[in-house]
Amino acid sequence: MDIGTRERRAQILAAATDLFARRGYHGVSISELGAAVGLTGPALYRHFKGKEALLAEILLDISTRLHRGGVERVSASADPLDALLDWQISFALDHPALITVHERELPHVPEVPRREIRRIQRAYVEEWVGVVAARMPRPEAETRAAVHATIGLINSTPHSAGGLDRAAMAELLHTMAKAALLAVPVAREAAPGAI
Known about the structure:
mainly alpha
């Protein structure tokens, strides 16, 4: 693939990400995707087989970037937990449209690429689970649930980051996420009459 083709594909992916984030997968037509980058709808098919293929490539790229970036940071850091938190927080704050599409549109991807996306996502979560378990030993299922909840907290930023500047939001997310990951659940006794 030549540089011009790669650049055009990157433009299409960026425009599609923005449109899918704002209007949802079903709210965007092939013609609108083409128009966003100065192409006709049919001309878009020279670069992608269709909307599903475009969405699949976006989600494969996001999942791969998150996983690779997490692995790199864990292996290079004296504090892997802080490195993972900083990585996920930076990605979420710097790429809110990607996070929105990543969180919302996976059901629209065909089965084969969806399985690959899920495999990569699971590998990323397991990277977190290993790091958190080394820091806070507890049952594996509890650690995994805490990791999923924490990533969800961080990924909520496209909906909540508007009121603070980036540095303040990053610090708030880091503090909250780290506390959530390292929290020790309190055993609760059921109150009389509680369901």
